[in-house]
Amino acid sequence: MIRYENGSKDIFNESQNTSNINTLTNDMEYKGKKDASTNYKGKKSGAGWTAATTIVLSPLFGLIPAVACASSEPSDDNLKYKEPELMKNNTYNQAYTEQAHKIKKRKVWTNYGIGSGAWLILLLLL
């Protein structure tokens, strides 16, 4: 509560402050995910090498780079974020990085599937 000289007062309760903090956190999380979806393209994710290994050797050997690449988060150099100041916010940073990792995993496993299909077609043709 704040009491002013003119006798008026402002009363604040904890739930209002908590609600404002939760809204800000949700906004930063949403912005982090949205920005990652826009900016991170999954370049240098290892997806190309996964597909190549799978086609040349076999889907069994292709699992090695697929699992290795999909399990590691994108490096900071590859995140391609546009606003470095926002990355200092823990909520934004975590949401951005998690979304970028999801994109990377999707790209790696998609390329593994494409490589496996191509390997099977080559096997049937030969």
Describe the protein in words.
α1 (14-39) packs parallel to α4, α2 (47-56) packs parallel to α4 and α3 (59-71) packs antiparallel against α4 (90-125). The chain is built from four helices and two strands, in the order ββαααα. It is rod-shaped. The model has no long low-confidence stretch (mean pLDDT 88). 22% of the residues are buried. The protein has 126 residues and is mainly alpha-helical. It has a domain at 59-126.
Reconstruct the topology from this structure:
Blueprint: E1 2-3, E2 9-10, H1 14-39, H2 47-56, H3 59-71, H4 90-125
Antiparallel strand pairs: 1-2
Helix pairs in contact: 1-4, 2-3, 2-4, 3-4
The biggest sheet amounts to: 2 strands, antiparallel
The rounded Rg comes to: 23 Å
Task: Count helical runs.
Answer: 4
Shape: rod-shaped
Assign a percent range to the helix content: 55-70%
Q: What is the number of strand segments?
A: 2
Brief characterization of the structure:
This protein is mostly helical and 126 residues long. The chain has helices spanning 14-39, 47-56, 59-71, 90-125, and strands at 2-3, 9-10.
